[in-house]
Structures are given as C-alpha cells and as structure tokens.
Amino acid sequence: MTTASSPIESVLVENRVFPAPAEFAAKARISGMEQYQALCAEAERDYEGFWARLARENVVWSKPFTEVLDSSNPPFFRWFADGELNASANCLDKHMGTAVEHKTAIIFEADGGEVTKVSYRELLDRVSQFANALKAQGVQKGDRVLIYMPMTIEGVVAMQACARLGATHSVVFGGFSAKAVQERIVDVGAVAVITSNYQMRGGKELPLKAIVDDALALGGCEGVRHVFVYERTATACAMVQGRDKTFGEILAGQSTDCAPVAVGAEHPLFILYTSGSTGKPKGVQHCTGGYVLWAKQTMEWTFDVRPEDVFWCTADIGWITGHTYVAYGPLAAGATQIVFEGVPTFPHAGRFWQMIERHGCSIFYTAPTAIRSLIKAADSDQAVHPSNWNLSSLRLLGSVGEPINPEAWMWYYKNVGGERCPIVDTFWQTENGGHVISPMPGATPLVPGSCTLPLPGIKAAIVDETGHELPDGAGGLLVISKPWPSMIRNIWGDPERFKKSYFPAELGGQIYLAGDGAVRSEDRGYFRITGRIDDVLNVSGHRMGTMEIESALVAKTDLVAEAAVVGRPDDLTGEAICAFVVLKRGRPSGEEARQIAKELRDWVAKEIGPIAKPKDIRFGDNLPKTRSGKIMRRLLRSIAKGEAITQDTSTLENPAILDQLAQAN
Ligand code: PRX
User: Which atom of ligand 1 is nearest to the CA of 543?
Assistant: First the structure.
C-alpha cells in the first residue's frame, strides 16, 4: 500500500469557509452542528440502538427484526438479519394512499428532448406488470438478472421489478463491451438479460441488443434462458426465436397487481461490478434491508429532500450512484426526480442548465468531470454559460465520484448555485451503498475541495499501515472502523477476495479499508481525499483498474509483448489513462506508431468499453524493471506526468529505457 497524491493539482488555494445559509438551515432536518453532533453522540453511546432506530423509522418491514447487528463471523457482518422486507414496496407501495400516490415520481427527458412523466401510482403499476411478466417467464426469487439498459423509465422499472420478485439484479453500464457483458453474465450466473434494442445518446442510435447477442455468442452463457428487449426506437434488431422476446410480448395480458415478495434483510438486492487491483472486476454484493435504510436516510440527511423538491442525479443506472440516487433513494423518499437519457453536451453544452430551468430542478447532483467540461464549454462559448438560464429553482448542489478541485467548486457555487446553494461534496464508493463522508447542507460549514465530515453513525478514520489512528494533518489510509448497515456484504462468489481487499489482516481483519488516501485538516478535522492507494484509476468519475486495461492490451497477442498502465493528472477527466507498450515486432515510430496506437485503443474499447481507452500510448523497447523483473510503476507515473525522475533508480536493470519512454509520444 502506498499513498498517492491527488490527481488534479489545484492551482487555486481557497481558504474561505462557506457557512450553511441561514435560510437553508432554518428548514433543514439537520439544521446546525449541534444537531449533527447530537446524532453522532447518539451513535457513539448506543451504536446498535442508533441504527435500530433509523431502521425502524426509514424502512417498512413486513416482518420486524429483533436482532440488530450480528458480528459473529467478521467481516461477514449481518444487519437486521431476521427482519423481512421488499425493496420495491419500500419505494412504491408504501406511498399508496398518501399524498405521494399521485405525485410525479419521474420526469423523463429523452435524448431528443421529449418529456414523459409518471406518477408513483403509474410507476407501481408498471413495475408490478413487469414483475408479473418476469414471473410468467420463470424468473423467481434468488435468480440473477443482468440489466443492460439505457437511462429510461424502463431501466428503473426493470430494476424495481427484479427487486419486487426478490431476483438479484446486476446492471451493466451501456458503455461496456460485449466481452465485459459476457464476463459479468458468467460470473453472476444470470438466467435472463433485460436490454433494449438501441439507446439514444447525443442524437445517435447506438445498439445494445446486438452487443448482448455478441456477449452470449462468446460462450459460457448457457444459463441465460431469456433476453427481454425494450423497443426504445423503431429500428428493428435481430431476435433469436425462443430466447428473445420484446417487452410488448411479455407484458401482454399481465396484470398491474403483483404482491411484493418479502425477503430477508440480508437477501442480495443487487450485485454491481466495479474495478479493483486485479484484472478481474469485483461483483459487489449489496443486501436489501441496510441498503434501503441508507438510501432513504441519506436522501433526507445529505440532500435534505422535501416534498416540493425536484431532485436530479445525473448518474447512469449502470453505476452505484444511479442505483442509490436514481433507482432507489429518491423513490424511497417519495421525491419527484428527473431521469435524463442523453449527454450533457447535446445538442449543446447548456443542456443541463436548460433542463434545470425547464423542470424547476431544486437539487442537482453531478460529477466534477461534468462540471469541468461545462466550464470549458462556457468559457469558449458564452451562449452555453449557465447565466443564460434561470436557475433560481436550485437550492442545493451535489458532487460525487472524484475529488472536486476548488476552481470547479467555486465556479459551480457561483455560476450554478448563485452563491446561495450549499454544495455537498459526497465521498462514497460502490462498496459503501450510500454517502459516508459529506457535509450536512443545513449544518456543515463548507470548505471547497473537502468532503468534510462522516455521516452520523459512520466511523471514518485515518490510520497508518498497521491500523493505528493518525493525528489530524497526517495523511494515511481511509478506513471505516465499525460495520454499518449499507456496506458491501461480499464479492460475489469470492469471499476470500472480499476479506483480502477490504478487511486486510494488517489492519486487524475487521475494519473496512476504503482504498483511498485521506488527510484530516488540523483546524476542523475535515477529511480531504487524496486519491486511490491501489492500482485503481478514476477517469471522469469512472473507476478503472490499471490491471484490467493491461490484461486487455496483452490479450492482443499478435502485437503486444508487454504493457503497463498508469494514470496521470488530467485537467478535464481528473485522471487520464497512459499505457506503456512493448510490441513483439519492436518499437514503431511516426505514422506506424500512430496507426498501432489507434488499433490498440480500438481493441481496448472492444475488450472493456470506450471508457477504458488509453489517452496516451507510448512505445518502448522495454519497460523499466528491477533486477528481479518487477515493473517500476512509480517511474512510469513520473514519465506519464512529464516530470523529471527524482526517485532512486539504482535498482533499475535498464536505466536507459527511462529517456526513451520520456521521449516517446
Ligand atoms: O477514489 C474515490 C472516488 O471514487 C472512488 C469510488 O468509485 P466508485 O466505486 O465508482 O463510486 C463512485 C461514486 C460513489 C473512491 O474510492 N470518489 C468518490 N467520491 C469522491 C471521490 N473522491 C473524492 N471525493 C469524492 N467526493
């Protein structure tokens, strides 16, 4: 474990502190630091009692739990284990007969701008009907269903319908390749795939079903009995008789009543794949009870969501943010939310601001990369600057997925939030289920670039490599020292990797290792995330494993002898992927090098997905290695950054390679 530095090097030093606006605080659930501290103290005094109270207040249980935390087999912690519930009933059924029933649940804006709205009642009917359709096709509790869908109401319906039946969904982001889809189908043991003929992004019709066909053709997917196809566009796609059916076919004649299946609190609600330090993505397994609890509670604490809010989380349902803050949290909280199919730059880079005005969005939650790209666009074209739209409906802004540099924070604060909206910089991970470190917008004084303080009940700390807590000001490893209800339960099918990755023996085997470096400020004890401590990159807020990309490159066996992948800071995407490649045929130059680089990028897009394409590819005769043959990645990181090598290179077997790689481009 080594500590890395922050990917974006901030030029702006912003020392101002932004207190919670009085108007916001006056109405907020947590309306001052005393209240925040009182909640933390409650958790401190009676940890299980605190969580039991939240679980009773936030979750509708079909069978109440009697046991809170079961720590008998660490790190396989269990919460509320003898309780039963249904996640979909907690998002939909519970609102029936209340003021929420006929409220708009989703305002859907398509890529082309068409708007469709559904109420909670209508959404429940659609989820129930789809669940009945799945049931009629043989999908049942405990089955795994892979979802490969665009950002649409149907995508949310598919997830909720699986939850309604107790089937475990595994959503794969629509930008992943056939190979990535196939690997996930095999690993999760899917019995069905829910997809769409095409998806619309930036005015283009892109295939999804054809990618599923390719994935299934790669083999090992014999368990998949069905492919259900949502006809998003009028263009036909190839259908395999017997295996493939359209939504229209399976929904025909199905009732809109479907009793939710009660499952145990620990029943896996979903498995979501994310990158780790090895070549193989990890299937992060989440439970039902603790997850639903935290999805709803964080909507109320971090976003302070109110009945009149229009909430918009721009994340895709293929990522954890889209699970917790699109598919589950807003619905569990009874909020009206915007679901957007398209991209922020189509038909112009003012799309987000236009949509905020159009739909009266009041809480807006996006990623720093999106903000940075929209800053750039607004700098070069005044017509897409946020000042062209009326953003007065906004009252709260959020940031997620990567560190937000103070420059971007200040721009967001001034130009989008009109200096009146607090910004919640929410730190969390796929494995966490929901926010773990974030300001409480009605209470916490904000410091740009800091995610501030842990949520009540979350025991975040910074420790050294032996697990000893470090004083404020000293950088170290971010850990969460007590189990909490929405934490990862397992890596699907790989409990050993689960233990090793998150609960390493060096730290005592019971505390959760986040995989990020962090430092607490000496004045306020605020957390600042300094970047991953493992071989995971964060490119545009997307988590990518360097080993995964290396494996993809060396799988191009006709060309590649060896490859090493590192990250370097990038002003727009946070980090950029740099690949150092040794070809079997020797080092190319000029036009040949450009051609091969293109071929390799396309290959990586095919193996993993376009998001994994290396930005830089440098060819060398060799890679810098120690005498024992270990690639010296820290040197490659310096070269990728364009830095002079100041590290000790005495153990290097082939020092001349450094100059060659530094010059290669
Ligand atoms: O490095 C941290 C970064 O994103 C990683 C988690 O990625 P993922 O599992 O894809 O989940 C992203 C969305 C929840 C973390 O290990 N990260 C996430 N949020 C922040 C962040 N880094 C700094 N500040 C944040 N607010």
Answer: 10
